[in-house]
């Protein structure tokens, strides 16, 4: 309900109260200034009127007293009270209806506003979540990329080191293999192998170096 | 190098090195002096003389192998001269083993050397436990490593190839198992 409607209701109620109070005041104060009558034209008329005026007033008072007696006044009061109560009731009903309508509208408005605000906030929140998710995904992707690069680098380095170490071990093994085997043979069979068993091997080796031995002896002697 | 006489001198395989020849020469000297002593003792019988003139097996073999009679002075002198020539002129080879060789081994090697390299080859036998098996022969200018260590060193590339092949096979097999 608009403010204009509320003002009209309140104005109507005030005007009714003002009317009732005025009537009551007029009943309780019969000597109140009456509306001025138009003056008589002639002096005789004025004189007659002057003579007749107290009489008239008296009769008027009596008529008024006769008409507006206590019962009638009480009836008027009751009627005014009832009318006032009726107006108040109607206005209260209107007011209640308007209040309900206003409350309903306010509820709708508040609901709509709250819904809109919540939707906006939810949209912002959702957007924030999406942004955060995207940032997290980007960060994770960068981290994964970095880890993958580090892994490849480490893999390459480890392969290089392993290859170098393997080559070093192989080279060392090749260099020391004869000594290792010799040491092993000495420990294993050095004290047990008989020179008689080696005789064939020795003679074969001598035969293989026969020419060189002869040449060296000839040269030496 | 060789004795100048026309007949070849037979050096038995029991005579290995200069030390043996020196022993023979020393024994011949002793024998010579003993015979000089025995000349003055006419009362001794022939058997007693033979007992006093007992010589070592090496000297007896050397004399018998070259048809020398040790009772004859000229033969002893010839033998002495021949042995001296051999000692001074024969090529001396140094041979080392991981352990003390038996006479059989020494004689076998010496027989081969005298049959294939030089008739009067003499040996000086040493010990080198580090060679494990085989021997090391040193001539006047060279060293012939005939040990098992040298043999393994010569075979090292082949062994490396074998090990690499085995390692590669194992690597391939491991890769296949991983797949």
Question: Whole-Å distance between the termini of chain B?
Answer: 74 Å
Low-confidence stretches of chain A: none
Derived from helix and strand composition plus strand pairing, the structural class of chain B reads alpha+beta
Order of helices and strands of chain A: HHHHH
Which range best describes the helical content of chain B: under 10%, 10-25%, 25-40%, 40-55%, 55-70% or over 70%? 55-70%
Q: What's the end-to-end separation of chain A, in Å?
A: 144 Å
| Contiguous runs where pLDDT drops below 50 for at least 5 residues of chain B | 1-5
User: So what's the overall shape of chain B?
Assistant: rod-shaped
Helix/strand order of chain B, N-terminal first: HHHHEHEEEHH
The class by helix and strand makeup of chain A works out as mainly alpha
Tally of helical segments of chain B: 7
- Computed over alpha carbons, the radius of gyration of chain B is 26 Å
Could you tell me the number of beta strands of chain A?
A: 0
What shape does the CA trace of chain A take? Answer: rod-shaped
């Amino acid at each position: 309900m608009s403010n204009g409607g509320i003002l009209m209701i309140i104005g109507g109620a005030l005007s009714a109260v003002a009317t009732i109070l005025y009537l009551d005041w007029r009943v309780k104060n019969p000597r109140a200034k009456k509306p001025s009558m138009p003056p008589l034209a002639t002096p005789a008329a004025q004189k007659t009127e002057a003579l007749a005026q107290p009489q008239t007033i008296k009769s008027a008072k009596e008529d008024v007293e006769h008409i507006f007696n206590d019962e009638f006044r009480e009836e008027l009061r009751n009627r005014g009270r009832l009318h006032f109560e009726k107006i108040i009731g109607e206005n209260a009903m209107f007011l209640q209806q308007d209040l309900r309508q206003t409350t309903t509208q306010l509820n709708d408005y508040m609901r709509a506003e709250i819904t809109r605000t919540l939707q906006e906030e939810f949209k912002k929140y959702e957007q924030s979540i999406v942004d955060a998710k995207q940032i997290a995904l980007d960060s994770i992707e960068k981290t994964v990329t970095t880890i993958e690069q580090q892994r490849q680098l480490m893999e390459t380095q480890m392969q290089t080191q392993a290859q170098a170490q393997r080559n070093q071990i192989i080279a060392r093994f090749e260099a020391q293999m004869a000594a290792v085997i010799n040491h092993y043979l000495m420990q294993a069979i050095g004290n047990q192998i008989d020179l008689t068993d080696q005789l064939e091997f020795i003679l074969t080796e001598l035969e293989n170096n026969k020419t060189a031995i002869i040449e060296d002896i000839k040269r030496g002697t | 190098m060789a004795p100048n006489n026309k007949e070849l001198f037979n050096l038995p395989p029991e005579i290995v090195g200069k030390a043996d020849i020196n022993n023979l020469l020393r024994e011949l000297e002793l024998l010579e002096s003993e015979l000089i002593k025995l000349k003055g003792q006419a009362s001794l019988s022939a058997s007693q003389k033979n007992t006093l003139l007992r010589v070592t097996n090496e000297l007896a073999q050397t004399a018998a192998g070259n048809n020398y009679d040790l009772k004859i002075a000229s033969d002893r002198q010839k033998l002495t001269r021949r042995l001296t020539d051999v000692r001074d002129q024969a090529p001396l080879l140094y041979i080392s083993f991981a352990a003390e060789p038996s006479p059989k081994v020494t004689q076998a090697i010496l027989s081969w050397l005298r049959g294939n390299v030089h008739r009067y080859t003499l040996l000086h036998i040493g010990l080198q436990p580090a060679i494990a098996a085989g021997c090391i022969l040193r001539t006047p200018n060279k060293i012939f490593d005939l040990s098992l260590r040298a043999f393994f060193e010569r075979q090292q590339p082949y062994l490396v190839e074998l090990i690499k092949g085995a390692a590669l096979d194992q690597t391939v097999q491991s890769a296949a198992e991983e797949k």
